[in-house]
Design goal:
Order of helices and strands: HHHEHEEHE
CATH class of the largest domain: Alpha Beta
Strand content: 15-25%
Number of domains: 2
Distance between the termini: 8 Å
Largest sheet: 4 strands, antiparallel
Shape: elongated
Radius of gyration: 20 Å
Number of strands: 4
CATH architecture of the largest domain: 2-Layer Sandwich
Length: 150
């Protein structure tokens, strides 16, 4: 991270905390770091484009809004992986799909508007791929407040 100047580091640290609910939250951040709002937005875009920020956006509590999340895994034969990946990712409910070096080599998250959407989507994926979707529903939530100092 040697290419980052102190303002970039400060922005990364600030963005890991709550973004204000004011009308122009980036203007408030700009005041904190001594830049214009436009300069802050330009720097945030550059941080994303250069891979220093991999994701920037809100996290929503799906359950509090009536929906659900579920971690899922599949054992996908290597020769079918790309085909299955395409079929799985075609579902709008699928997020965070990763390949792992394990018998269960495809892991993804289902996020649905209603709890019944989890088994419905998992069943659809099973029908389309001919493979079992193992669902690992959340039993308890832990908030760890993970932050990385830039």
């Amino acid at each position: 991270m040697s290419e980052l100047d102190q303002i970039d580091r400060d922005l990364i640290n600030i963005l890991q905390n709550d973004l204000g609910l004011e009308h122009r939250p980036f203007e408030a951040i700009a005041d904190q770091v001594g830049l214009s709002e436009t300069d802050v937005l330009t720097r945030i875009n550059a941080l994303k484009e250069n891979g220093y920020l991999t994701r920037f956006g809100p996290f929503f509590d799906a359950a509090a809004m009536g929906g659900a999340f579920c971690l899922c895994a599949m054992a996908v034969p290597a020769e079918k992986f790309d085909d299955v990946l395409t079929k799985v990712n075609a579902h709008a409910e699928v997020a965070h799909n990763y390949e792992r070096a394990h018998r269960l080599n495809m892991w993804f998250v289902l996020a649905t508007e209603k709890p019944e959407g989890i088994p419905n989507t998992a069943d659809a994926i099973e029908r389309e791929t001919g493979l079992t979707v193992h669902c690992f529903p959340k039993l308890q939530e832990f908030y760890i407040g993970f932050r990385v100092a830039a």
